[in-house]
Amino acid sequence: MSLERALAQRAKEREALIQMARRYAERVRARLKEARVFLYGSVARGDFNLESDLDLLVVAPSLPKDPLERARLLFALREGPEEPKGLLPEEFALLEAQGKLWFLEGALEL
Q: Which residues are registered as beta bridge partners of 85?
């Protein structure tokens, strides 16, 4: 396989994963109405492999306050390799102010 063909195949694989993440974001918004959804990690950066999951951060005011309930809700919306984490907007703002959202560098907001 030529380098050009391999790169084109890689781009197609990445786009398919991003579309899967977009569908997850749609399911989240259907359930929670208002939500920001970020794809971060290896798929967003483009250095994913066959074992990679879809690292997703959901920020929504209607997420449960209890972290276990929050995780249960977000994981129930999975249909594939999605690996969601959830924050309330005030939690997101606090972490952002503290500089602790470094992992979102290069993230795609869906």
A: 57
Residue closest to 31 by CA, chosen among 68, 67, 66, 78: 78
Residue 39 corresponds to which tokens in the numbers above? 């794809």
Q: How many CA atoms lie within 13 A of 97 on its CB side?
A: 6
- Mean pLDDT is lowest, of 7-11, 61-65, 80-84, 96-100, for 7-11
Domains belonging to the chain, first-starting first, are 3-109 (3.30.460.10)
Q: In the predicted model, what is the mean pLDDT of residues 42-53?
A: 87
Bridge partners for 40 per DSSP: 55
pTM, whole model, 2 decimals? 0.91
Say how far apart CA 74 and CA 58 lie, in whole Å.
Answer: 8
Three-state secondary structure call for residue 43: helix
